[in-house]
Amino acid sequence: MPRNPCITLSVRSTYPATAPFRKLKGPYADPGVALDEIRDVRAEAEPLLLRVFATGVSRRDRFHLAGDWFCDTGGDPPRKLPVRPWRFSPAATAWSRGKPWVEAWETCPEARWMLHEIATHVDLGALGAATCACAQYAIGRVPPEESRPLRLLESLQAWHRRKISEADLLASKEDARVYQEEVAAGRAGAEPRDGDAWRYGAIYATQALIFAAQAALHMPTVAPLVAEYAARAMEQERATAASLSELADRIRRSVPTPSALRAARG
User: Fold this and answer.
1) What is the mean pLDDT of residues 20-40?
2) Confidence band for 1, pLDDT divided at 50, 70 and 90
């Protein structure tokens, strides 16, 4: 065994996000003892996040011990969280490399990166909540007298609650697509007050909803496009980067840290 092994355990609450860690146990010199101590931790009132530091140990022991562990309520032992960069784009990979998964989740500035991570490594329940939050962000770009995009949003929310059938969701999606074509052809809505700006906003907002429906219906990899088109819909009011950052916050509100950690896969 390498000389001077030192293993320590710190803990934090998962509420609020980015809560500070405090020392829990250690230091330990024996990796086996440290692993037993990790497995003995239980969350009582709220989920906990453990962070384990391991120095002076073998590469194998560091792999099995060091990093973040999620301890949920219900009596189960902690589960080690994945360590990996986010792969949406080179920028996402460079930004996330070396960050613990929970830190990336709680500080990510870009909604598309988060939706890609949810679609590939979390679960469809979280993806539904996140895409609906993003699509709802831009629904105000659709004139209030037009109900078809709003019906699609309501159908999406009902679908994720398992209240409607796939056929019902497909019908709402088709109605929204027809509305989008009417807007593009100049056959829908009253004469705009701000030139063509309303038209582009309505088209992009509706497209965000259509992508959200596609993500719900067996195409989760299109989820980042929900945020992209929701942000485009709002370009008349704020810069795209600002919208993507605001959408990231909306995703975190719809999928808070404990829910994300509970669903995160390796």
Assistant:
1) 94
2) very low
Half-sphere exposure of 127 (CA within 13 A, CB side): 29
Residues, the chain? 266
Give the start-end residues of each E strand in the chain. 6-13, 22-28, 48-55, 67-71, 79-80
**Token match 């189960």: residue?**
76
pLDDT tens readout for residues 41-95: 999 889 999 999 999 999 999 999 999 999 999 899 999 998 889 999 999 999 9
Alpha helices in 100-196 (DSSP H): 101-107, 111-121, 124-137, 148-160, 166-184
Q: How far apart are CA 213 and CA 153, in angstroms?
A: 9
The structure's pTM equals 0.90
> Which residues are within 8 A (CB) of 217 and not within 5 positions of it... i.e. 6 or more apart?
166, 169, 170
